[in-house]
Amino acid sequence: MKSITRRSVTTVTRLLAPWAILVAFAGSAIASHVDVSVATVGEVTVGETVAIPVALHTMDGSPLAGTVVTFYLHMSFAGVEGEAEIGRAVTDEDGVASLAYRPRLAGHHELRMEYLAAGRSDIESTTTVIEVTGGAQLYHSPAGVDVPGVGVELLMVVLATVWSILFWVVLRIVAIARAGGEVREAALGARR
Amino acid sequence: MRPQIDAANSRLMNDETNEAAVSDRVSDDPVAPPQPTTNGSGFGRRRFLRVLGLGALSIVPLPVVSELIREGGVADSQSEPVHGRGAPARTRDGRVRRWTMIIDLRACDGCQSIGQPPRCTAACIEGHFAPEPMEWMQVFEADLAGGGTQFIPTPCQQCQNPPCVNVCPVGATFSTPEGTVLIDQERCIGCRICMAACPYDRRFFNWGKAPVPPEALLADYSPEHQVPAKKGTVMKCDFCPDMARTGTLPYCIQGCPQQAIYYGDLEEDVATNGREVVSASRLLSENGAYRLKEDLGTEPRVYYIPGHGEAAGRDAFDPGRSPTEWPWMERAEGAVTWRR
Amino acid sequence: MAALNDWQNRLEETALGPVRRTGRRFWAVVAILLAIIGWGLYAYSVQLRDGLVVTGMRDRISWGLYIATFVFFIGISHAGTLISAILRVSNARWRTPVTRMAEFVTVVALICGASFVVIDLGRPDRVLNVFIYGRWQSPIIWDVLAITTYLTASVTYLFVPMIPDLALFRDRLAGRSSRWRGSLYRTLAIGWHGRPAQWRSLTSAIGVLMILIIPIAVSVHTVVSWIFAMTMRVPWDSALFGAFFVAGAIFSGIAILIIVMAILRRTYHLEEYVTEKHFVYLGYLMAAFAAIMIYANISELLVHGYKLQEGVEFHFRQLFLAEFAPLFWFYLLGGLCAPIVIALVPATRNVRGIVAAAILVTLAMWIERYFIVVTGLRVPLMPYEPASYAPTWVEWSLLAAGLAAFALLITLFTKLFPIIAVWEVAEDHEASAVQAGTGIPARAIPATADSPRLAEEAGR
């Protein structure tokens, strides 16, 4: 009896195995028959624009054109965390969608790309990481116009000129007073 | 170098007739030209220029030097804290934040759907003990192109070319590196030229002793948290910089039941309304954002996404909102109120 | 020679008259003015205690009667510039009897005007912040600089030509007036004895000042106008404001001068020196400036009114048709058109007519400052109902007190200082006598008691 059981199991296993393998392959093909690859992006500094290319191909290697890929970045701000959409790109005839991305915060960031391939009903996604190093201040206020020399310096020059002339007039008054004083001295001297 | 004098007086300059008779030095010749004296008659060109130079030097030094040191003007160049406020808010990688507010008018229905006075205004009033009748965040109701109205919550626009800062004679109102415009009520002299200059009606004056509740008097005043209000000075929305620096959203953002107001940082390009995080630049560019009175060149930091509250289910032709209230039952002693 | 001495003596007696004799009427006038000022001080104390809420100003219309009155007084201060400086530079001889009064009015008007800015402050206890923390970029600081400079220059310009007359007072009143008066004149006359060296200094100082003070005065009311024009309020946002305000200032300055002249002429019997001719000439000047103001108004209103950009339509309605129409049309017709008509029609071209025109102009110019300030702030900036403004008793009281202070200071001046520029009038008289060919020598030095030798020389 034992030998029959063993031989039955072996037969069933041998019969089922190819189907299992077939199903396994078919299964993985059903789960993702799109072959997606993201080129690793090297180190990037804040403010520097970098291209993030995503390549979509079918399993038999032909490129998937015309697919919209949406890029998300995990952000945290003022106690609220979540994913923010940072861009979208459409795959070209080579199946490559490239986003020109300008990182705005240093650190280790996770980017998630979502796409819905033609003929599919599920949205699929893939992730990549990007290392960003700190940079200089990016946003500068739109300031005014700086014309050299026209400004406080001009005001100072005008004020100084006017007040110097007034000062000169005061000196004239002093001269009047002094001339009067000398007259009195001369008169006194003449009387002696 | 003798200045020009009118003809009637010119004979006084004619030395020949006068000097001979009454010269300072005794002279026998009646028509001899006078000898130069030291009594100011020979004040020549050189002495004039010397006096001019001395005058300029003696009059002008200190203000010019202090001005050159002070680097007045663009907030960008200020690196040290100004006027008793904290250090500038920074991103996680040390860059200075540039605050912005993005108000999604598709979601703002003036709190019609909840039947209350606008909650953003109410939250701001309660958080700051804003004296009656000040509405630092004020919800205006504007006409739409085809009839009907939209609600426009209007905080201080935090302009980058702020008319109020430009005209203030004592620098009591000033721009910060984060782009907010603050007021130091300890320095304000109450001249109100800033109120004349603001094109958005966003500055408020404490005409009398401010009508705030007694507990407001216990707070420590700072330009970043204007409690309590000071009589005879100006105040306005300040973007809650003390809260924003610590990562807390301002009162108006917290108060909005539709999450219509986003607070963001243009440096990190991020914004949140308390529920979701978005890329600020995307939110602005993809939704037709605009600013108020753009043609005036004030460069405000408050953006609006056009709408009339449709996301909250509001019909554009349904006018009216509840009037703002100031909730305290009791006012500090001696406080009076006034109409705007 | 005798005729000259006679005339000279009469002139000096007229100049000394107010200082020698003080009647009951003077004290009555001073008492009334002091009472008004006292009431104004009480009103100000109420304002200090309770804050600016006692005025009619509120957030939407945050400037009102105080700022209008400030601009009005600074405008009046241009009387001195026009008469003393511009007419002096153009060598108009007829100005000589009125230069002193014009300069009085200038200095007093500047003081009164500056005080109204401080009255308008919400925190007058912090007024020194303007000097400690002043920002050069602010129009108010430009204003402080300009008014300080103008006040200094005007006080100097009042004092310097007055020195020979102060010496006259010193000599003629020596021992015949109170001790403090005697020492006042002695100090202020700074040892004037009519020496040629002194004359040289005096004339060169006057010459420089009269030219310098014209650009200073122009700058003063230009920067006052820029307090408004540097904002973006629709009625104020105009490139024309500087010139418009300077023209208006000289215009109102002439009017006030005519009024002051008429009062002082009647009170101190100056009819021989301040004649109908002076009123008529000033009336012509006033009419000329009225024409300039009409031109400026047309420029301003037509250029904006043709296009009717945002806010302008509201402004035009409130100004021409609705709330401010009575004030505006009075200003236009009574203040700008009437003076021209009065000056052109021979029947009204006399002292009474010109003084009536001057009163209309003064009233109209205060009204113009008032509606410029209030209508400028009234145009709504956002979608809200336009506010309204009405001055309260505090504001009216302080206006009355300011005008009373203006009158009081001028009254006190006339009791202390020579109201006529004696030496200049004498000079002018000599010059015209010479031209008439009476043979009187072309040089007359006013007689001074302690230089008989000079008087003798003058007679030669």
Relative strand content of chain B: 5-15%
Task: Return the domain count of chain B.
Answer: 1
Strand order of the largest sheet of chain A: 2-8-7-4-5
Helix content of chain B: 10-25%
Largest sheet of chain B: 5 strands, mixed
Q: How do the strands line up in the largest sheet of chain B? A: 10-9-8-1-11
SSE succession of chain B = HHHHEHEEHEEHEEHHEEEHE
What is the CATH third-level topology name of the largest domain in chain A? Immunoglobulin-like
CATH class of chain B: Alpha Beta
In N-to-C order, the SSE pattern of chain A is: HEEEEEEEEH
Oligomerization state: heterotrimer
Number of strands of chain A: 8
Q: List low-confidence stretches of chain B.
A: 1-42, 59-81
Quick synopsis:
Chain A has helices spanning 2-31, 152-191, and strands at 34-38, 44-45, 50-58, 68-77, 80-90, 96-101, 107-115, 124-133. Chain A is of the alpha+beta class and 192 residues long. Chain A has a five-stranded mixed beta sheet, with no helix packed on it.
Give an account of the 3D structure:
The complex is a heterotrimer of chains A (192), B (340) and C (460). With 192 residues, chain A is an alpha+beta fold. Chain A folds into three domains: 1-31; 32-133, Immunoglobulins (Immunoglobulin-like); 142-192. Chain A has two helices and eight strands, in the order αββββββββα. Chain A has helices at 2-31, 152-191; strands spanning 34-38, 44-45, 50-58, 68-77, 80-90, 96-101, 107-115, 124-133. In chain A, a hairpin with a 2-residue loop joins strand 4 (68-77) and strand 5. With 340 residues, chain B is an alpha+beta fold. Chain B has a single domain (75-312), classed as Alpha-Beta Plaits, CATH 3.30.70.20. Chain B contains ten helices and eleven strands. In chain B, a hairpin with a 5-residue loop joins strand 4 (173-175) and strand 5 (181-183). In chain B, 49% of the residues are buried. Chain C has one domain (30-411): Formate dehydrogenase/DMSO reductase domain (Formate dehydrogenase/DMSO reductase fold, Up-down Bundle), CATH 1.20.1630.10. In chain C, 73% of the residues lie in helices and 0% in strands. In chain C, helix 4 (78-89) packs across helix 11. The N and C termini of chain C lie close together (10 Å). Chains in contact: A-B, A-C, B-C. Chains A and B meet through strand 4, strand 5 and helix 2 of A and helix 3, helix 4, strand 8, strand 9 and strand 10 of B.
